[in-house]
Every structure is written in structure tokens, then in C-alpha cells.
Specification:
The complex is a heterodimer. Chain A has 16 helices and 35 strands. By secondary structure, chain A is α+β, with helices and mostly antiparallel strands. In chain A, β29 and β30 form a beta hairpin. The model of chain A has no long low-confidence stretch (mean pLDDT about 90).
Amino acid sequence: MSSISSLNVGLKALLAAQSGLDTAGHNVANVGTPGYSRQEVILSSSGSQILNGIAVGSGVEAGAVRRLADQFIGRRLATSSGMMAFLDARLSGLSQLESLYGEPGSDGLSTKLQNLFASFSRLAADPSEQSVRQSVVSAGTDLARRFNSLSGSLDELAHDTRTEIRGMVERVNTLANRIATLNRSIPEFEAGGVPANDMRDQRDQALRELGGFVDVKAYENPNGAMTVQVGGQLLVGPVNAYALRAETGPDRSVVLQIAGHAGPLTPRSGALAGLISVANDASGQRKNEVDALARQVAFQLNRAHSTGVPSGGPFSSMMGAYAFVDQDGDNLVTDETLSHTGLTFPITSGNLRVSVTNKTTGEVETTNIAIDPDSMTVGEFVAQLDAIGHFSASLTSDGRLDLTADPGYGFDFAQRTASAPDSYGTFGGQAASLGSRKGPYTFTAGSTLQVTTATGNATITFQSSDFANINRASADEVAAAMNAGGQLSAIGARAVVVDGRVVVQSLTQGTSATIQATSGTALTTLGWTAGQTATGQTNPATPQISGTYSGTTNQTYTFVPSGDGTIGTTAGLGVDVFDQNGNKITTLAVGQDYVPGTPIAFANGLSVSFQLGTLSKSNGDVASVAAIADADTSDVLAALGVNALVTGTNAATFAIRADIRADPSRLSTSGTGASGDNGALLALAGVDELAIDAYGGQSVSTHYNALIVSVASDASSTQGMYDTEQVVMNGLESRRQSISGVNVDEELIDFERFQQAYAAAARFLSVVSNLQDELMRLV
Amino acid sequence: MAARITQSQFYSVLESNLKTNYGKLALYQQQVSSGKRINRPSDDPGGSAVALALRNSQADIGRYLTAAGDARSRLDESAVLANDANATLASVRELVVRGMSDTMNASSRQALANEIEQLGLQLLQIANTQSDGTYLFGGTNSKQPPFAEVTVNGQKRIVWQGSGSAARATIGAGDEVETSLPGNQLFAKWSPTGTKYAGLTGARAGTSKDQGVAFEELTVRHDATNAVLGAGIVLANGGANDTLIGTRSVEVDAANNQVRLGTGAWTPIPSAASGQRTGVIAKDENGAEVHFDFSAWSGVDLSGSATGTGSVSIDGTNFTTIDLTETNLQLTDAVSGAIIHLNTTGITRSGRDLVNFGGTSNAFDIIGGLVADLRNPSGMSTQELQKRLGSRLVELDAKHDDVLVGLSALGSRSARTTDVQERLNGRSIELQGRLEKVEDVDLTSAVLEITRAQQTLELVQSTGSRMLRTSLLDYLR
């Protein structure tokens, strides 16, 4: 063994101990550095030399300094922290979102809704009370303000979050650029064969930070550069980083894009994903829910309000709030069908009843308009309204409905039940009348009918052109055909329609008036026998309806005598009452024990009384009355915003109609037009309990509660997920720490160990040196 | 490999434990200070759902309670007035009964009439009482006085112009109560009992029912008398002043100088010297009169007969000759629209008979009629007056009954709202209890939790600080 090599062994031992101390020092220095992985020196013994046939060791070899890190745990940790960042961002956003609703509390929509319903109910107790009326308007305005402010705060939250997102995108780009810079440095450094441990730690740290914003996938190239992908798209390449941009999409949602990629980027974890989900919630689902609620509330309130009458009585003019919009691009709305006119609220198949009141006489004329939104055009609808007497309807230039009554007249859409159902006098009236059987009828072309009155006789010939379908001729068509030629009016007679039956009637009254179905081939079709004659009378039966209809749906009641005879005289005489389906409801006894003028209840709060008159079943006496629970079953008024309580089609525009706000007396209170009636108010208060089809039969309040619970569940389940993820994260972190963490005590032991090794190596060198000195002295 | 523990693990474990315990403390602290377990819905979404539903129910109940309270105050107000009406009608009745007495003279009746007229005005005032600007008894027609004076056929009458429908209040889900009683049920209830005649002329109701409202006057006119007489006795003035309808026997008892008609009382024949023999009035058992002229009487007995013919009219202008076999004679008053059917077989004399369409007149009509009768401008006899007043009194009693029935209806409705109020109050308290259970914090357990969290926190702090203080450095030299 040469002393030179012994010196080498000593030197190597010194250097090894030195690097061991350095590494331990480095570890201690980085004990608080986030993401730092403990390093250690790899020591190995040098190969042995054969000296004089004896293998002698050549000392220690200090190899590379290596990082103690588990790639697998590192990746799991990155995923988990990305998820944590996502949940954290979402949680703080959701808790802000939740607080916007202000539930539970007096400022919540729930309370505002209940206050409004309570005020309706309060006013219903005394509809004329001005102060209570004002409080209804205040409660409505309060609700409107709450809707508006909720919509505004949701917008604000979405806007603020979008601003935060843009800031975060800047951070992502900074981190991506740092990784790209390190990507360029690391291969250069490691080309020297030395691992760039600290640069890698920096890059890992940047990657980890990046993982807090977006979900990253990183792959290391053989040369040490790292490519980073976000949602399958390249964010950082071996050399360059690609810029991330945040934009607001057409549906107010946030869209992320990486330069060079066409498709949008959808991060699934990280704070950015959390913020985007919050922004999209606030401007998307939650906003839509609130808007839909506002729409539903407005629609239901308007449905109840539109058929009411204010305390001032019928309207003299009224304009719709919502406009018909041209759909086919010909700048003409009149050719559109009602179901296809760009209205927010749906028009359904049903009837609209318009009542026009003569303000001087109090006389009311009610017109029924049947609405089939799929076939009726806007033009037809307006024309039918306009055709009503003393009333005009037109469209404004912007497509809204404009209704006006003639001077001295007023109109409304109240639930009026006619008090005198027999307007033609076909039920024991003074004129002679002959009623047919109930239609539809099967005619043959060219069939005839000869009618004779005291004045003369007339022959009517029916043609197939008179009917849409000659095999199913309606009573209206038959009557129109009879009146068309003028033969009937020439002999002092006319044909009218009562409840789907044709009635021929003399124009004169009294016992001298007669009408006879003389002959003709149409006799049997209409249910008459040849020569059947009816005579007029002096005392009419004059049915009179009283009471308020309490049924829930519209109904038509038809009165038909059960036999022939005189009211109050003929034993056993009765009047059969049928509903609109032809079912007999009851028979009213009007025979010898009936005192004329006595009201007899027949259905749902309605009664009828008769005067002394002679009824004839065989001559087809008939009268019918429409009992109205809802004067607008088509909802066309609510859809057009005619006599609306609320205007606006979403939460931001929800408002109590301006002229009601200005003058609370315009609030509709009466359901029937009577000044003290509170039907409209009861209906408005009843909106609270109304089962809404769109909500699966739930009420508005219940639905709103479900919305609140859904917002709350979102926040609470996110909190739960955050807590779970925290546990996972803690576990992973402790495993990472147990591999890569620095234990100061451990390092102190290393200090001791390497210090001792260093001292021992120095001692060895001094021994070798002494040995050499001894040798030198010998020379 | 055994897990390595590092210092930073100490720190992070300690930090997270401290955070958890501080969080718990803050939570319980908030719960205790607000008294609420749920401060925002996400604190307990399930509980919030229940709480929100309970709050809705409570709001509904509050609404129903207000409505029931309002309804009750209106009903009670109406009941007080109905009670006043009851007292007024009782006073009217008392006065009318006094007026029917035989001992009353015309001027006392006049005074009674004035008094009753005042009571009628008082009743009208009650019926037209306003509360908060609406007429209490107007039904849903609350802006017009329910009873107003109008001129019908030249006669001033008080008529009902309110609405028979009462306003309703919702005092429960699908539960409504009427908040008033329309005045027609109190003062103008239509409960026909058939046509009645005061009974002066013997006219009766025919077989068919009649059409009419309140009262009409049936005029039975005497047209002529045909007599089979002799012994120089003739009809005075050709029978112009007679009231007899139908045939009666005429008997003259010369021995006692008296004459009688039918089975009526004997009328003495004045002496020839008195010069009063030209106008001897014989009355039959029904009070029908025939005037005889005895001035040329031969002084012998006579057994003859007298037959009066007449006509009837309901409107005073169109007369129909009486055929005493007709049981269903139809008479029409074209102006009022009234149609009556008359059984003429019992008509015995002429006169004006009060036709009462039983149960169709209103209280004011009846009182007006009573006043008019008591003033007696046409000079009716006490007997006639009593018959008419009696007929009207029956109607007045019916109205009185209506007011009593109305009073009890108001009372029972008021009682119902009281019941509902009690039930709703009970339910509200129960809901409040359930709401508190869901929303409010259980203070005892919350305070216990705070103590526990505090202890845990202190433990974590003390053990943590002790762990952190340990370092190998303390022992290495």
C-alpha cells in the first residue's frame, strides 16, 4: 500500500463527510420551504486494490445527492390539492350566493311573497279600504324590489367572480411561463451530469401551484423538460408556454381558451374551475331559476288580476303590456297564429269573455270569444274583439293590444253570470217559438222546410254550401241558413240558436202570435212533426238567475221543461236542468205548489226563479245560462298583460304595473263587477295555494323553498366534500412528509455522524502523515 | 418501513387541530348568541326545508287569523245592528196591536201612525248603516244603500237594491266564511206563503198560484141589485148604494116592523111618521147591505129575494164581471205585473180587499202599509181596519222572525270565526314549537359542546406547545 493512496483514501473520506454535512445543512436550511424534498448523499465504498496479493479498500466514494420523493404520492397530492382548491373556491362562492337570498329572514323572497298574499287577504275583508289598498301596492313593490335586487346581486356576483377569474388566469400564465423557463434551464444544467435538484424543486413547486388553479397533467421528457397539459390541452411545452384566456360566452357563461387550441377548455379541478362553476351558477342556473320564478309569479298573479274589476268599475281604455312580435319576417304580426307570436307567456285553448257595460243604464252585454291559439291569427283575434259593440280593439305600432270602449261605455273581463238567461224569450216567452232537437244535424242537400206564421208562410231550402259538413251541420249554420234568404223575416219570424238548438220564433208577441213547422223534408232532421204549431202568450215565464257562482270551472246550464203546462198551476210541472255535458242535474218543481218569483237553488250557489208562464216541452222551450268561474280560460289577457298586476318577464324587470302604483284604486278587487265583491282578491290570495303544473303540482312558495334548499344543499355538500378531501389530503401530506420531509433531529444526528467521520478522516490523514514523516526520517 | 415523523408534520397537525377546534367554538358561539341552530340554510339543508315549510304554514295561519278577526268584527257589528232592528220591530208590533183596539179613535190612530213612521225610518237607518264606507247589509253591492226609496206606480216604496251575495273571507285552506248578511235576508226575505185576502169581500185565492210582490188592492164593485119584492117595497135609488153580491132572501116581519137580509140581524122599519122609510139598510150575515125604500109599503109580510151583481179588478181600471161559480179567475195588474187567481164563489159583498202576497213584502212595505192604514184616509170601518192591520201584522211577525233567524246566523258565523281563531292560534303555537325545535339551538347541549370544544382546544394547545419545545439540540453539546 502506498502512502499516496492512503492519503487519497483520507481525502475522499474528508470530502464525503464534508458533502454529508453540506447536505444535512441544506436540509435544515430548507426545513420550512414548501414542497422541499429532503436530500441525501449517496455514499459507497471505492473499489479495492490488490496490493501484494491482498485486497485493500480504496476508501469512500461520495456519489450523487438524491431527492427523496415518491412520484406517485406527489401526483396524488397534486390531484387532491387541485380538488381542494376547486372546492375551496366553490365553497366561498356558494356561501356568497346563499347569502344573496337572505333566507331565512324578513328580507327573503319568501317573506315578501307571504306579505303580499297577506295584504290581499287583508284587503279582501274590506275591498274599499284605501289604506289597506295602498299596503297591497307597497307589499307588491317590496316583492318587486326584492326580485330586482336578487337578480342584480346575482349579476354582480357573476361579474365579480369573472373579474377574479381573469386575475387568476394571469397567475396561471405567470406560472406556466416560469415552468417554461425552468424547462429550458434544467436540461442545460443536467447536461453536465449533475441533477438539477433545486431547479426541479422549484418547477415542482410551480406545478403544484398551477395545480391549485387548474387540473394539470405533467410528463417529463428524457432530457428533463416537462410538458404540462390542462384538460388534454398543452399549456407548457418543452420550450414554450401557451397563453390562457378567459372570455364571456353568449349565454353569460365563462369560457377558457388556450392559445393555439380551437376548443374551449373545461377545467375539472382547481380554484379556476371552482370560480367558473360559481360564476356560471350565478349567471346561469340560479339566475334562470329566479327568473322563472318571477315569471311564474307574475303570470299567476296576472291571471287572477286580469279578470277582476277595480273599485272604479269597468275600464274605458286599456293597453296590453306585452307585444305581439312578427315571426316570419314580413313585418306583419296579424298573420301569425296566437301560439307563435314571441310572447313570454303561453296562450292556451279556451274562451275569453268580454263584458261591455252601458254606464248610464248599467246594462251589460257579454261576448264570448273562443280562442284556439294554434289556428287563430292575431288579426282574427283583434277583429273579433273589435266586432264587439261599443268597443274597439287595435294593435299599437309596437304590437301591443289597445282596447277602448265608446264614450258612456266601459268594459271588463269579470266573472259575470247573466241574470236574465232567456234573452230571446224561447223559454215560455211571449213570442211563439218552436225549438228543434239538439244539434249537430245530418242534412241532405236540397232539403226544405216550410214555416208558417200568422202573416204567411216561407220555404227554406238547405244547400250543402250552407254547411262546413252537411252530415254534421251545427245549429249556428242551420240558423244562419234559415235567416240568410230573408224569407223568415218576411213572414215576421226569425231563427235563433239556444244551447246548440235551432229555435224558430215569431217576431210578434201575445196570444195571437203563432209559428208552425208546416212541412218539408228537413222537419224530421230538426225533430219537428208536420203541422206542429206554437202559440205566443201574454205572461212570460221570464227565468231569472240570482246568486254568485261558486263552481271552480266554467259551466253552462240548460233549462228544459219536463212537460207542457203553466207555472204555478199545472200539477207536476217541472224544469229539468242539464249541465254542459248533457247530464241532468236536477228537476225544479214549478207546478201547482210553486209560488212565482221564488228562487230555487239548482247548482253551485246559483238559483233561478220563474214567473207565471206556460212552458212547452213538445214545442222545444229552452233557455241556457253560462256560469263563469274564469272569464279567461285561454290566459290571453295574462299573456298580453291586459289589466295586469305585474309587468316584466324576469326577475330584473318584475314590477307592479306603473299606473296601479300611482293610483292604487286601479287594483282589481271585484271578481263579478259588484263593488263589494272581493273575488279577484280571494283569487290573488289563492295564488299562494295554487298547484302549478310546471312545478309538478307544487305551489309557488313550496317551489321557492325547494330552490333555497337546493342552493343550501350545494353549499353544504361542497363543505362536506371539502372536509373529506381535507382528510385525504392530510393523509397524503403526512405520507409525503414521512418520505420527503425534513426532521431536524435526524439532520442533527447526521451532523454528529459526519462531524465524527470528518474528524476520524482527519485523524487518519494525520496518522498517514506521521507514518510518512517516520519514513522520511529513515531516509 | 416505519413512518418518519417530521417537524412540519407536527406543525400541520397542530394547525389543523387548532383550526378545527376554533371552528367548533365559533359555530357553537354563534348558535348560542343567535339562539338559532340554523343561521343560514346550508347549516342544515334538510332542517331548512322543514323550517321554510313551517314558516309558510305560519304565514298562511297569520293570514287566516287576520281574515277571521276582520270577519268577526264585521259580523259582530252586524249582529248589534240586527239586534236593534229586532227591538224596533217589537216596538212597531206593540203599537200596531194598540191601534187595532176597538177603543182607539181616529186621532189616537193618527198619533200611532206618526210614531210607527218614525220607527220605520229608524229601521231604514239601521238597514242602511255604513261601516268604513261600505254598507254593512248591502251584500257585495257595498257602494249603494241597500234599501232606497223609489217611486213604483206613483207610490213611494222602499225597495231592496243590494246584492244577495255576501262577501267572503278565506279563514283556512278552502274554508270560507261569509263576512256579512245581505239585508234582504233580514228585512226583505222572500219566503212566499201564498196569497191571502183580508177577508172583507169573501174573495179567496184560486187554484193557481199568483204572481206579485207585497200588497195589492182588490176592488169588488157592486154593479146592480135585482130584487124580487112586493108589498110596495122597492130598492132605494135603484140599488145604487148596495154592497150585496149574490142572492139573499128578504124577509119583512110586519108584526114587529122589521126586515132582514139572509140570516143577518133584523133591522127595525121606522114608522111612517118619521119620514125615514126611504133609506132602510138591511145587512146580511156578512155585512153586505141592501137599501130599501119602505115609503110605499103596504104593511104586510114579505118573503122575497135580492141579488147583487158586481165586477172585480186588481188594477182599479179593468173590471171583470163576477161569475159566482168561477174558482180560478185570472186578474192582471199590467202596471205592477201582478197576476192573481181568484176564487169568486165566496164573494158576498163589494169593497176594497187587501191582497197580501204572503212572505214577499219587505219590512218597510209592511210598516208603510200599517202607517197608511192607521191614518185611514178613506174612512174604513174599525172592522175593516182590524182585518187589514191583522193581515199586515202576520207579515210583520214573519219579518220579525227573519231578523231573529238572521241574528242567530250572524251569531253562529261569529262563533265559527271564534272557533277558527282559537284553532288557528293553537296551531300557530304548535307550529312555533316545531319551528323552534328545528331552527333553535338546544342551549344546554350547545353550552356543553362549547365547554367540550374549549377543553379540547386547551389540550391541543398545551400538548402542541410541549411537543414543539422538544428538540435534540437541547441535549447536543
